[in-house]
Specification:
Layout (H helix, E strand, L loop, with lengths): L4 E5 L11 H15 L3 E7 L6 H4 L2 E2 L6 E5 L2 E12 L4 E7 L1 H4 L16 H19 L5 E5 H12 L12 E6 L7 E3 L2 H5 L13 E2 L2 E3 H8 L2 E4 L2 H9 L1 H4 L3 H6 L4 E3 L27 H14 L15 E5 L8 H4 L3 H6 L3 E5 L4 H13 L4 E4 L4 H10 L2 E4 L9 H7 L4 E4 L2 H6 L11 E3 L4 H14 L3 H13 L4 H21 L1
Parallel strand pairs: 1-2, 1-7, 2-6, 7-8, 8-12, 12-13, 14-15, 14-17, 15-16, 17-18, 18-19
Antiparallel strand pairs: 3-5, 4-5, 5-6, 9-11, 10-11
Helix pairs in contact: 1-20, 4-5, 5-7, 11-15
């Protein structure tokens, strides 16, 4: 494909600003596209918590400070840069003390969402759309990630309608999680600098008496995708997973698709992972047993073994946000019964206070069988992926998911629900080529039945090793995903040219 100028607009970009999978996906895709010869500029707010000297963030000297209007106020803006990727990838950060000077991406440390979210999104979008002209850098594709960045596509379709940006400025929206739509009162059109008619049908923002940034992005973009084929189908056929936008997405027809995220196997490689006490491969799993014993010591877990140093019941790991989506409500009630039967659990994550409290009590009540760590700890996460025998991911819905991919690579067969990217990445036992285990409905008894199935085959070490090795051999690389995005970019450019 002819190299393109691609401008990514995103609120997250790992490792500089990361809240969830969006940060990882945007970063990995940008790196891969640059490696394939494209010129990529990532436009990210300069959040107050970013360590400017430590990250090498410096002013973009060729661009003078300027002021942009948001609502009825003017905001001073400065452009900064963090070079990366041999010159083909550049991260441009939008500095604005009024809106981004405080720590946090979407909210503060207490979990309170910022009240000026719309203003922050509007300034981010305006500044991004100015960059191609300010830099003399004609942009072929504007790729926005999720609802916060969808403002850029809204402005492209209104303020910049019928003109170059400069450059074709074809637009693509990637939906990482449809549940987060940025729905606000209609008065927010003033903050966006758009007429009130945009909040009334057939305006792009109209949404049941309010405005919806995600909906506007879906309608404005030349092409729309989400992060797995199954989630794309679910969001147009399932009213609950469509979150009120299923008809809007269905109306896009073939312009809406699913592209499975990839995994950065340079960071996720059990043979050379510096966070692990021992490395291992599919051909030599001895190091995995070392990792399990070390993890159990670290977390204070204890469980009986057979005569060959193998646990009588598997050690189950969980790493993730403690929210309803992740199926923690299904798992928690089962822990006492399973712990009594000899299962052990290593749980890591933060989230809803009620779930944190519930897991703390379970760990206190079953100290040798249940360990819960209530913090974000990337190194411990790596050790849990490596040290557990089974990885639990009973999500009620999952647009793509990365944890199950990590678990497969680390020889820890995942237990997942048949939804979204989980259904696209795990082959359930007893199907041929099984790499993990799957249950259908979001009920705790189905999860329990699935774990009883795990328990039944666990003693068969040869069968278990075959499941592990198949999972470790699977690859979900970003090269394949980037090729799919290139095809979507080509479609978007063709659509923009025709329109």
């Amino acid at each position: 494909m002819t190299p393109l100028h691609i401008m990514m607009v995103t609120a997250e970009f790992a490792p500089f600003a990361k809240v969830g999978g969006l940060g990882d996906a945007a970063s990995a895709l940008a790196v891969e596209l640059a490696a394939r010869g494209h010129q990529v500029k990532v436009v990210l707010p300069l959040y107050g918590h970013l360590d400017r000297p430590g990250l090498g963030i410096r002013p973009l000297k060729k661009l003078p400070p300027l002021s942009l209007r948001v609502g009825y106020g003017m905001h001073d803006v400065e452009f900064h840069v963090l070079g990366r990727g041999g010159g083909r990838l550049q991260v441009v950060l939008i500095g604005c003390d009024d809106l981004y000077g405080r720590p946090g991406v979407y909210g503060d440390a207490a979990g309170e969402v910022f009240s000026d979210t719309v203003a922050r999104a509007a300034l981010h979008a305006q500044a991004a759309l100015l960059l191609p002209r300010l830099l003399g850098w004609p942009v072929d594709v504007i790729h926005a990630h999720d609802a916060h960045a969808a403002c850029a596509l809204l402005y492209r379709d209104t303020w910049y309608a019928g003109r170059d940006v400069p450059g074709s400025g074809a637009t693509v929206l990637t939906i990482h999680n449809l549940a987060h739509q940025e729905i606000h009162p209609t008065a927010a059109t003033e903050t966006l600098g758009l007429p009130a008619s945009q909040a009334v049908y057939p305006g792009l923002l109209e949404f049941h008496g309010r405005i919806n940034l995600m909906k506007a992005g879906v309608l404005a973009a030349d092409r729309v995708n989400t992060v797995s084929p199954t989630y794309a189908r679910e969001t147009v056929t399932d009213a609950e997973l469509g979150c009120g936008l299923q008809a809007v997405l269905a109306g896009r027809g073939d312009a809406y698709s699913g592209i499975l995220n990839g995994t950065d196997y340079r960071l996720w490689n059990p043979a050379r992972d510096p966070a692990l006490p021992a490395g291992f491969t599919a051909g030599d799993l001895a190091g995995k047993a070392v990792c399990r014993r070390a993890l159990m010591r670290e977390l204070g877990l204890d469980a009986p073994e057979d005569g060959k140093g193998r646990l009588l019941r598997p050690l189950c790991g969980f790493v993730g946000r403690l929210v309803t989506q992740k199926g923690v409500d299904l798992l928690a009630p089962l822990l006492p019964r399973l712990a009594a039967d000899g299962f052990t659990f290593a749980l890591l994550g933060t989230g809803e206070p009620r779930l944190e409290k519930q897991l703390r009590k379970l760990a206190s009540d079953h100290p040798q069988r249940v360990a819960y760590v209530d913090r974000y700890d990337d190194q411990l996460a790596h050790r849990i992926y490596a040290g557990c025998d089974v990885f639990l991911m009973p999500s009620l819905f999952e647009p793509c998911g990365l944890s199950q991919m990590y678990a497969l690579r680390y020889g820890s067969p995942p237990v997942v629900r048949a939804t979204g990217g989980l259904a696209d990445t795990v082959v359930p036992f007893p199907e041929p080529g099984a790499t993990g285990f799957m249950f259908q409905q979001g009920r705790d008894q189905e999860l329990l039945a699935c774990l009883r199935g795990v328990e039944k085959i666990w003693p068969d070490a040869k069968l278990w090793r075959a499941i592990q090795q198949r999972g470790m051999a699977v690859r979900f690389d970003w090269s394949s995903a980037a090729a799919r995005y290139e095809a979507v970019y080509a479609e978007a450019l063709a659509h923009r040219k025709e329109g």
